[in-house]
Model the fold of this input.
Amino acid sequence: MKSTTNSIILEVACRLLIPVLIVFGVYVLVHGEYSPGGGFQAGVVLALAVVLNRVMEPADTKKGYWTFKIIALAGMGPIIYLLTGLWSIPFGGNFLEYGHLPLAVHEAERHLYGILFVEIGVTVGVMATIISIFDSLGKVGDPDDHGSLL
Amino acid sequence: MKHRFSRLSFAYGLICLAVLGIMVYCTTFLPSYTQLDNPAHRNVAEHYITQAKAETGSPNMVTAVLADYRGLDTLIETSVIFTAGVVTYALIAIRRRKNYIWGGDEDHEIDD
Done:
């Protein structure tokens, strides 16, 4: 039988850790306005969940990583941020002026939602960047992978 | 291995040096360090501490400053992180794949 893991200890530890990391990352993201945390930290925690999953796999795995797609995802982060900033302009606000977002809540709460959208953009950018750096560092030239930049 | 750097990368280096020179020159217009009457120490900090909760609705002052008052700064910061990822990929992954395609020649230089 082909081995599906590096070691049983690593796999058990990662299986315990990865769901906790994902839940904690989302918690740090959406609770960032109230408690210490925010987009950058949540991005790092979520990226660590994916990186642990890659560490858990055996070294001779043939599974192709989505290097180029993950870079495109990293580019989505600043774009989400930028669109949140531009969203308030047609409604009479300045760039990144969250008080003019067209949400049916009062003004201070619109700021909260604006901060949340912006933090989601930061999280996506940081998470995908860390995963792409890990993939680039660990990637040996793979003959079957022609699907990216070259 | 005829030449290590092509003419185009020389031009890139000149552009980078020129931008660096402009940036260093612009630092002379900034207020100096350890000066207690800097604008940053007079008005803004006290305004953030007293008004952040009322103006942004966020009890976390750090988040209020990071994402609301200094939103443009954080936008550029995020794109800097994105640039770091792209550059790491360009430096490591593309070079490795080219080496694989061209027979794993370690001395091969990528021009331009």
Summary: DSSP finds four helices and no strands in chain A. The helical segments of chain A are 8-30, 39-56, 67-87, 107-138.
